[in-house]
Amino acid sequence: MTNPNHGGTPADPQDFGHELDELWEKLEVDLTAYLSTMVDPDEGDHLLIELPGSSDDAGCPPYAQFAAFGQGRMIRAEVSGNAYLTPQYVLGEGGGEFFTMMGWHGDDDAEENGAWGTIRSSLA
Hints:
Layout: H1 13-35, E1 42-50, E2 63-69, E3 74-80, H2 93-101, E4 105-106, E5 115-121
Antiparallel strand pairs: 1-2, 2-3, 3-5, 4-5
């Protein structure tokens, strides 16, 4: 029997994974292209990507922010860290280890914004 409230046949998880990979690749290409346009030498160009929601005393939703400097040849990137995230978004130990392994540092009250921060040269 068919349930009229059912949204249809579920997608094959392998198809969804492939589609999701393609969307991440598109985001990577588009983000790289956008960041290459950020050339303010004094970190005047900023890009903030965040989940919807509001910040309060309990913390904030996850975000990533980028600022250009060095005549647009360098990008500073920050990702919200546990010190400022609302409880439902706090990374477990594995998440912290992932950021450290990828060369990020911070994630404590001493870091501005309590963020995982890194500086990477742009692809420009």
